[in-house]
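Friendly challenge for the regulars: who can give me the structure tokens for this chain first? No prize, just bragging rights.
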Amino acid sequence: FGRVKKVSCGANFSVAVLASSGKVIAWGSNFKGSLGYCPTPNQRPSLLEPPVVVNRPVYSGVGGGTAGADGCEGEAVPEPLVGIVEVACGHSFTAVVDSYGAVVTWGDNSEGQLARPRLDHPESNWLADSQICPFPYPVSGGSYMGKAGIVAAGDCHMLMLTTSGVVYSVGAMEYGRLGRAAYDDGGSGGGSGGGGSGGG
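First reply, four minutes later:
Bragging rights claimed.
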């Protein structure tokens, strides 16, 4: 694949960014779409995959454009992610930043840690209690957030630091890990949402 400039590890998978092109390589378990593509209904964490190039789905119709947030609907042409400059892996999800400052995420979204709508996949019974977004897709609210410079990931939450010094946090709220007051479930639930705090 070539020389690597960035690496990060999740619970059962790893991700690397290539130095020359900014392409993303992932390997390990794809149990919850951690490797950037749809897992099969009978896939289990113990099934390990060799290194693969992470692609984003692009519609082949007139006008192009990325696929829907679930990434598993409709016909799309895979196109490699390129120009990636930062990467961070959580337990079963990945967040990257491209050269334009956009944050792109994929994998487990059960706590809203991908900063985009949570989706069920009823066609896969083993996913009945999970929400996954296996294909790379830009985060919700990227237009008002501005350009990101760095992403960081915990077990099931994510922080995005913008170039203007503002931190946005999404994902599970327990233990105060998002650095802001919970606004649902009486402050004890694992809801998601964007929030910013000024950098110093």
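Residues 142-145 form the longest helix (4 residues). Confidence is low (pLDDT under 50) at residues 61-74, 120-129, 184-193. Your move, everyone else.
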